[in-house]
Specification:
Elements lengths: L12 H10 L1 E4 L5 H15 L13 E4 L5 H7 L2 H11 L13 E4 L28 E2 L8 E6 L11 E3 L2 H9 L7 E2 H4 L11 E3 L7 E4 L5 E2 L11 E2 L2 E2 L16 H9 L5
Antiparallel strand pairs: 1-9, 2-3, 4-7, 5-9, 5-11, 5-12, 6-8, 6-10
């Protein structure tokens, strides 16, 4: 597996501690604006909207699928991100990105897009036709990180993803009793009000910013009150090896440490 060890590791000890305690780190300038602009040109084409004519922006959100063109793969595999993946997940314990995940392109609108609820992202059980039956387990089967790639500038009014800092610890405690089988989204979502008191953080930043998040982090969309559409991708980082929830000791990754901390171990 590729390793970021050939370049300076981007995350300081304080960043790692922030990730363990709060569930995310923010890397500004992870990929160049020129790459973001090239990607957005392709995305605009597929929206069917005219970037210069807001009258064509008739929906609050348009969801676009997987993208494998060069700008997307280049963003997914930025050297600074590879190095950060090694730091958060473990050297070589992840697969490099071959595509950029779903784009919920959000447009300025007073219309409720209907997808603003707090949730965690499922990581297995995709064969189930009802998405509420998709699953998550305490070992985060199928997902090493949740990632938010900002391909456009995202300010406070531009529908930034809302994050409940530290909520990954609550979710680990929710999942633990279910063991390897895990819980469906239908079972998890009603338990998420326990995270309501957590500090809310907005995933803002200039194009090229990436948020690397613990896979259990609770997050939500919001309405777009700005002036320009928001282009953001939310691909998973796929693991190449399962999490070690016991016996990792001092070799535990920050993702594993956070789960240990939630369950009464040492973070």
């Amino acid at each position: 597996m590729p390793s970021g060890s050939s370049i300076p590791r981007p995350l300081r000890d304080a960043d790692i501690d922030h990730f363990v305690q709060n569930g995310f780190v923010r890397i500004e300038g992870a990929f160049p604006r020129t790459v973001a602009d090239a990607a957005c040109a392709l995305l605009w084409r597929d929206t069917g909207c005219d970037p210069e004519d807001p009258s064509t922006w008739t929906k609050p959100v348009i969801r676009l699928g997987l993208y494998t063109q060069a700008p997307f793969v280049e963003a997914a595999n930025a050297p600074v991100l590879h190095a950060a993946f090694d730091q958060l997940v473990g050297d070589g314990r992840w697969h490099p990105g071959r595509a950029m995940g779903t784009f919920p392109v959000r447009f300025p609108s007073a219309q409720d897009p209907g997808d603003l609820g707090w949730h965690v992202d499922a990581s297995f059980g995709w064969e189930m036709p009802d998405f509420l039956e998709w699953r998550v387990n305490i070992a985060s089967k199928g997902r090493a990180l949740l990632m938010l790639f900002l391909f456009s500038d995202v300010g406070a009014d531009d529908a930034p993803t809302r994050i409940r800092a530290g909520s990954h610890l609550d979710v680990a405690r929710i999942l633990a009793p279910a063991g390897e089988t895990g819980l469906s989204l239908r079972e998890i979502v009603p338990q998420l009000p326990v995270t309501a008191g957590r500090r809310e953080v907005m995933a803002t930043g200039p194009a090229g910013t990436v948020y690397l998040c613990h896979p259990f982090l609770v997050h939500a969309a919001q309405m777009h009150r700005g002036k320009r559409p928001r282009f953001l991708a939310q691909p998973p980082l796929l693991p190449s090896a399962p999490l070690r929830l016991a016996g990792a000791g001092l070799d535990a990754s920050p993702v594993e440490r956070a789960i240990s901390l939630a369950l009464g171990g040492i973070g």
